[in-house]
């Protein structure tokens, strides 16, 4: 992990309907930004990744901590700390919230099932408004593959 910092904001809903009707709740809510450098030994090689954890309306806090195994013995985050892929990086207290991942352009190739779902001929969504192509909601299980390093 290269760095992490908080950005103050309010508490708005992060559900999909609010995201397209409220003026950008992702940019108005309280957020914790973590910059992950994956170009390190044992890293995934997808470049710098910004993980933005967004506090939703019913969330009181994001505890920035890391645990090497499940949520057992969480350690405070520190710049330069190695965070293992697939392990918990934060605790939301209480409830749930939203994570937004941003990748360096050209560094990732998204998983085939996500791409297939997005390009499905019947893909349509009420959340597509203003985006030139359908935004398709896809259930993604925790620790599922999202992308590979680009060739």
Describe what this molecule looks like in 3D:
There is one protein chain. It is built from three helices and nine strands. The chain is mainly beta and 151 residues long. The chain has a domain at 3-106. The strands form three sheets. It has a four-stranded antiparallel β-sheet, with no helix packed on it. It has a three-stranded antiparallel β-sheet with strand order 5-4-6, with no helix packed on it. The longest helix has 7 residues, at 112-118. The radius of gyration is 16 Å and the shape is globular.
Write the layout of secondary structure elements.
Elements (H helix, E strand, L loop, with lengths): L2 E5 L8 H6 L3 H4 L2 E7 L10 E7 L6 E6 L8 E2 L13 E4 L4 E6 L4 E3 L1 H7 L28 E3 L2
Antiparallel strand pairs: 1-2, 2-3, 3-7, 4-5, 4-6, 8-9
Oligomerization status of the protein chains: single chain
Residue share in helix = 10-25%
Radius of gyration: 16 Å
Separation of the first and last Cα atoms: 23 Å
Main features:
three-stranded antiparallel beta sheet; mainly beta; 3 helices; globular
Summarize the structure in short.
By secondary structure, the protein is mainly beta. The chain is built from 3 helices and 9 strands; from the N terminus they run βααβββββββαβ.
């Amino acid at each position: 992990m290269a760095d992490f910092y908080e950005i103050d904001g309010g508490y708005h809903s992060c559900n999909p309907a609010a995201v397209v009707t409220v003026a950008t709740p992702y940019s108005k809510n309280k957020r914790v930004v973590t910059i992950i450098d994956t170009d390190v030994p044992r890293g995934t090689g997808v470049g710098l990744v910004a993980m933005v954890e967004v506090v939703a309306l019913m969330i009181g806090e994001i505890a920035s901590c890391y645990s090497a195994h499940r949520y057992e013995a969480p350690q405070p985050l520190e710049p330069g700390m190695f965070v293992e892929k697939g392990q918990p990086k934060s605790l939301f207290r209480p409830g749930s919230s939203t994570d937004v991942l941003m990748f360096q352009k050209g560094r990732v190739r998204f998983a085939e099932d996500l791409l297939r779902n997005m390009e499905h001929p019947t893909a349509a969504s009420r959340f597509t408004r203003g985006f030139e192509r359908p935004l398709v909601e896809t259930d993604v299980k925790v620790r599922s593959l999202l992308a590979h390093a680009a060739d």
